[in-house]
Write a structure and sequence with these properties.
The structure holds two protein chains of two kinds.
Chain A (H helix, E strand, L loop, with lengths): L35 H15 L6 E5 L7 H4 L3 E4 L5 H11 L4 E7 H7 L1 H10 L3 E7 L34 H8 L3 E6 L3 H13 L3 E7 L3 H7 L5 H11 E3 L16 E8 L5 H13 L9
Parallel strand pairs in A: 1-2, 1-3, 3-4, 4-6, 5-6, 7-8
Antiparallel strand pairs in A: 5-8
Helix pairs in contact in A: 1-7, 4-5, 5-6
Chain B lengths: L10 E6 H12 L1 E6 L6 H10 L6 E4 L3 H13 L3 E6 L1 H17 L3 E9 L5 E5 L4 H6 L8 E3 L4 H18 L2 E7 H5 L1 E6 L43 E3 L13 H16 L2 H4 L2 E4 L6 E6 L2 H14 L4 E6 L1 E3 L3 H8 L4 E5 L6 H9 L4 E5 L9 H13 L1
Classes of the chains: A alpha/beta, B alpha/beta.
Chain lengths: 291, 386
């Protein structure tokens, strides 16, 4: 594409989120109609208003379309291996507990190949915010079935439709011990921003699932129209039900989407628990761990 | 700089190689260990878990070896010196993250207390079957460093060297123990902290606006910062430019991978360490490493007593391999004898460097125990005659 396409018209007011993005890496790789960029916009707004010292916030991604988020955010950012953002983030957090850690990755990355790490980080209550973009599919590799693909939906590796039960992720996160659990769609930009901001303010394992359209692979193969059509579906089929029992909110193919904040509780984090336990057990000989 | 005394148990100890490895890591300044239990390496993390609460370290038993091998890398970017500890099956699971550490130039140490494989093999018994895997196990081209201790004392001394080399060259360093060395109990002398030399992390100290995270110095190694320092670094396993930004071009790939390989290759003389005994004027030279360097000694002594001219070259640093030294010796000796507890791994390097100028004989062993020195002696004798 010609260079002049990216020239900035100084007369147009700048989007304030640009300060939080690596503008020298634009344009990004996401397809037209993809919902990931919308969530990044929400995330940047959440950072903007979070009151956090952004020098002490780090973002970690795995691999995939959402895995590219870390590369566009102007924070200390780590683009790791497929599925392993959470254990990397665990090491980073434990090495320096004063850092605020955000894991930003996709449904396949975090709940298939990385599923084991997801449940254990939630169990340990490692202090991190996990933002999971659920587009029901492996996007980067061309639209294969994921643990989140709804029953009967078509993917390249389920050409006759998916017959596997999919994950109800808020229920999974809550059962494993997450202190904050919410689900939104990329249609709910204000809710997403607020929810990410709340999650960032939590101590412990906070989890925000955001449904996002993949028009190129998921919508097209399932004859669901383009990105806008998915947004209309999100708008018309979502029901905000804060505090809903996570057991009752599985997703179905083009079915009703229960969104909202489902869990918001307190539980001592991994490092706090360790310090408290060792102080009690080992007394003055214990060197309180603070990084 | 010198070691922080808080981690150093100065004095004489009667401990096994696994425990000595833990003490060495503590002395080296390691304060983050992630591991997953696996025989015969578990004692390393058990001692770490016992000791760390008193020295300000943090040990976490992760959910698997894959998690362990990347948690340590997160910890390094958080500012800690870090290692993970495993054995064959776990080492296999860690391969992808050895590549990540190489690609992102994350200094860290992987301890592999080798047991007999393949697969679950003989979990409680020794082998040296992971030597090529340590060098080549992750996909793509990169350089690493590997060391092979032959005693508990060396488990202590060389793990410090392993940490120092990892910091100096910003590479993952493989610490290739084996079940025998790991479970052998001997006297281990831990020197005072002020006698232990520590290579500090290469933190950048130039003007902030000039910093390029992957711009190398003259020795091909870039300076590092850590998360939270205010540099907004980007670190990726994708092919990246000096800014750390993904750049998927042939030119960037060539430049980056060339440097990752060359920073070990061109610094090899500074990294390589081997010990020689009676190599000058020898007809037959044994090339050994790890526990095999000790089982070879009775064979060498017997052959010498019978008048054979036998030398011994023991690899302390296994990778990079001392190519030049083997080439020199190949021009002088009749034969190299390479006993290994595998079916021929490092012997391939010896053969390659000997280049047909000297005979190269493997003394193989399938694993489960060490060589009978008689088997090594027989090969020495055959080579000395021929």
């Amino acid at each position: 594409m010609p260079e002049e396409l990216y020239e900035i018209d100084e007369s147009v007011p700048r989007n304030t989120v640009e300060e939080y993005l690596r503008m020298d890496r634009m344009p990004h790789i996401w397809c037209p109609g993809c919902g990931i960029g919308t969530t990044v916009n929400c995330f940047a707004h959440a950072l903007e208003t979070s009151g956090l010292d952004l020098q002490k916030v780090a973002i970690v991604s795995g691999i995939g379309c959402t895995g590219r988020v870390a590369g566009y955010i102007k924070l200390d950012s780590f683009h790791t291996t497929h599925g392993r953002a959470i254990p990397f983030a665990t090491g980073l957090k434990l090495a320096n507990p004063e850092l605020k850690i955000v894991v930003y990755s996709g449904d396949g990355d975090l709940t298939a190949i990385g599923g084991n790490h997801f449940i254990h980080a939630a169990r340990r209550n490692v202090d991190m915010t996990v933002i999971l973009i659920n587009n029901f599919i492996y996007g980067m590799t061309g639209g294969q079935v994921a643990p989140t693909t709804p029953l009967t939906a078509t993917a390249t590796t389920t050409p006759h439709g998916n017959f596997e039960q999919s994950f109800n992720l808020p229920y999974l996160a809550e059962s494993c011990g997450a202190v904050y659990v919410a689900r939104w769609t990329s249609y709910h930009v204000r809710h997403v921003t607020k929810s990410i901001k709340e999650a960032l303010a939590k101590k412990g394992f906070s989890f925000v699932e955001i449904l996002a359209p993949c028009p190129t692979l998921y919508s097209r193969r399932n004859k669901l129209g383009d990105g806008l059509d998915q947004m209309i579906y999100y708008k018309e089929s979502s029901e905000i039900r804060n505090g809903a029992d996570t057991k009752t909110i599985p997703l179905e193919f083009q079915g009703k989407i229960v969104v909202g904040k489902f869990v918001d509780k307190e539980r001592p984090t991994y490092v706090d628990t360790m310090n408290e336990y060792f102080q009690k057990k080992l007394g003055d000989k214990y060197k309180t761990y603070n990084g | 700089m010198k070691a922080d005394p808080i981690g150093v148990s100065t004095g004489a100890h009667f401990i096994d190689g696994d425990h000595a490895c833990s003490e060495g890591a503590l002395a080296a300044g390691c304060r983050f260990v992630a591991g997953y239990p696996i025989t015969p390496s578990t004692e390393v993390v058990e001692r770490i878990a016992e000791r760390f609460p008193f020295v300000g370290g943090i040990f976490i038993q992760m959910e698997d070896e894959i998690a362990s091998s990347i948690a340590i890398q997160g910890a390094v970017w958080g500012g800690k010196k870090a290692m993970t500890v495993t054995s064959g099956p776990g080492f296999s699971l860690m391969m992808e993250h050895i590549g990540l550490a190489a690609m992102t130039e994350t200094p860290c140490v992987f301890v592999d207390v080798q047991r007999a494989g393949p697969s679950t093999g003989l979990p409680t018994q020794p082998a040296q079957g992971d030597m090529m895997q340590a060098r080549w196990g992750s996909h793509g081209d990169y350089g690493i460093i590997a060391l092979s201790p032959n005693s508990p004392q060396e488990c202590f001394d060389l793990i410090i060297k392993a940490f120092n080399l990892s910091e100096q060259y910003r590479v993952p360093v493989m610490f290739m123990m084996d079940e025998c060395v790991g479970h052998m109990t001997e006297r281990v002398v831990v020197p005072p902290a002020n006698e232990i030399e520590i290579y500090p992390r290469r933190f950048y100290d130039g003007p902030k606006e000039d910093y390029l995270p992957f711009k190398a110095n003259d020795d091909l190694v870039p300076d590092m910062v850590k998360a939270g320092d205010g540099y907004n670094i980007h670190v990726t396993g994708l092919t990246h430019d000096e800014r750390g930004y993904p750049s998927m071009t042939v030119a960037t790939q060539e430049k980056l991978v060339h440097r990752l390989v060359n920073k070990i290759r061109l610094n090899a003389d500074k990294i390589i360490e081997y010990k020689e005994d009676g190599v000058e004027n020898a007809d037959v030279v044994l090339v050994t490493y790890g526990i095999t360097s000790r089982t070879a000694i009775p064979a060498i002594e017997q052959a010498r007593a019978e008048g054979m001219k036998v030398g011994h070259l023991r690899l302390v640093v296994v990778w990079p391999f001392p190519e030049q030294r083997i080439r020199e010796l190949a021009a002088k000796v009749k034969a190299f004898v390479v006993p290994e507890i595998n079916y021929g791994q490092m012997v391939l390097e010896v053969e390659r460097c000997a280049g047909g100028k000297a005979r190269v004989e493997l003394v193989p062993h399938g694993g489960g125990t060490v060589h009978n020195p008689k088997d090594i002696y027989n090969v020495i004798k055959r080579c000395a005659k021929g």
